[in-house]
Amino acid sequence: MRASLLFLLSAVAGVGCQSPPTTSTGNPTAASRPPAPAASLFETRWVLRQVGTQAITVPEGGQEPYLLLRRTGAAEGQGSCNRFRSTAATDSTSHLIFTPVLSTRMACPAIATEQAFTQVLAAAHSYRISGDTLRLYAPTEPDAAPLARLEAVYLR
């Protein structure tokens, strides 16, 4: 009886000391966190971060360029120097086309950024949203480089 009890205790102790098999999940905090939901195309302030391969920098005293799309089809924003308005047509899945942009005509150090932004809006034909990033595309191959990259900025 004593031998059976010792065997049973050693077996239980051996099982308790075994570590579970390890599995690699990469970043443990990322594995436990669900993916960020995609920002809404509408009623979101989309700040211009990149045109083509060029990162956008706002010169001192300049204004951050952004786009705001309303559910009514209105499009408005800041080019960097001037406020602008347009309308946008979308099927809410991938296509996005703007009418010609109307804006004020003030000069500023970032006028080149503003002109590039309005050219992107004129050339845009489709979009993709991934998390807080909006990418605008020309009507070429689906895997082409984006015309611009914008980031959702939430106002508090």
UniProtKB/TrEMBL annotation:
<dbReference type="Pfam" id="PF03724">
    <property type="entry name" value="META"/>
</dbReference>
<dbReference type="InterPro" id="IPR053147">
    <property type="entry name" value="Hsp_HslJ-like"/>
</dbReference>
<dbReference type="InterPro" id="IPR005184">
    <property type="entry name" value="DUF306_Meta_HslJ"/>
</dbReference>
<feature type="domain" description="DUF306">
    <location>
        <begin position="39"/>
        <end position="137"/>
    </location>
</feature>
<protein>
    <submittedName>
        <fullName>META domain-containing protein</fullName>
    </submittedName>
</protein>
<dbReference type="InterPro" id="IPR038670">
    <property type="entry name" value="HslJ-like_sf"/>
</dbReference>
